[in-house]
Amino acid sequence: MREVKKMLRDLSRGVNVEKNLSRYADTFVDTCYHEAVLKLTFSAYLLYEQKADDEEGMWDFPDAVKWFGETESLLRRLLELADEPYSAEAYGELAERAKMMHGQIKAVMEVYTSYVDCLNCYIYVLDRMRFRYEEEAVQQRQMNDINEDQFIHHLMCFLFEPDETSVRAERMRDVIREIPVYMTKNKLFSHITQTLSTYVGSERISLERYLYILRSVSMLNRPDESVISENHLGSWIRQLFHTDFSTLDKDGWMEIQNRLEEEIEWLQTATDLYAQLQEIVNEVCALCLIGRHTQKETDVYADCMEILRDVAQGSFPEEKLEGLEGKIEHYVEISYYLSSSLPEIKNVSPDGGGSAASVMDYDEFVMISDLLSDSLFIDLQREEGEGEILDEKMVNEAARQFTDQLSQLFAEVPKEVKRSVMSLLLAELPPIFQNAEEFMTYATTNLFGCQNIAERKAAVSSLAHLMAEEELFDMDWSDPDDLLV
After folding, report:
1. pLDDT tens-place string over residues 403-417
2. Can you tell me the distance from the alpha carbon of 157 to that of 160, in angstroms, rounded to the nearest whole number?
3. Among 134, 191, 202, 226, which has the minimal tally of Cβ within 10 Å of its Cβ?
4. Which of 443, 466, 485, 468 lies closest to 180 in space, CA to CA?
5. In angstroms, rounded to a whole number, what is the distance separating the alpha carbons of residues 462 and 459?
């Protein structure tokens, strides 16, 4: 590891560029070669073993059967090629097939991710309603028992006591998400436009990624659902979209609540499966690409291939897998440093011309790095707008399009859903207050000024749970729903 760091330092300083570029390429290939085959072995072993146990219930769905079959076929073809004389054309064809599957599975996951976004919004709606069916007198008595100043004091300590900026920011998002929103549509849109204006002079792709987050929490990401053959969940979400929550009785609330819990659990199982499938597809693709740069067979590679052949035949040799434990960490650590240096490497060349193409295939190395990263569903194609710098007119147009979409959504959904979206959006935007005093006023006014007693109790209870989880204060939170402070 020390030698790798020294090599990277020398490259950054322009020392022995040609020699170090060649060393970098060799090290990158060797590292990713072993990282890919080790990851593939563990990924395939886990998935095949789970399918053999068939405990998750996913294998009854045609889509799961289809994509497992496609992934299995991909793996079997890789094993076939490993037993044949090396053929760059054959590995290239398999790599292209894997890239296509990567995009297809990514499209399925985009649909399921949009469903998770929608369900999270409706979970919020039902959470705000959870005390609606209690006696109002009981709720009023509980609210009257709260020392509002003390509660806000504890909330301020919870937010501003941590030294780490990232912790404070995460807690601020959590708190803002829970506080009832009393804001006009125009004020929200103005805040959005002002936030997006900070992207003037930035790359378009940065703005698009941020807008993706905002669209997600706003239920505005609507990918092509035709990539799923059986879509019970999409139909139910469309029913929720037209539900009148203001007239929902307790039985109706419970029915939706129970269904939400079931669907969230099902989605978790489904997305876990597709993540496992994508891991295998990515790792097969990475191995095919690396095969263009090395055809050596190390002991680690041979051991992995032996286990993969066993797994493909339905055998799970645990003792062989245990023999690989502890080996992958070494390659993952080196891979992290090599991959994070790729943008800098692009501008290094022996002749100072800014191109390393004569020594290494930069674009292919980036793709291999992406395939082996934790971002399983990263776009392998060059993203639209990448490198394009935004001017004020472009940013204003993007803001207008987004706020227009929000305006249309707000006109179609009931007020409970509209306020839910506003809360989730505000949590992703920079705070609208400038200092702690302004936040104190905001929290006191919106929390304890909430006229809907059931919603106020739900918000205070949720904030109580947040603070209780951190165990920072000497308070009786044995039952936060009792709102003891």
Report:
1. 999 999 999 999 999
2. 5
3. 226
4. 443
5. 5
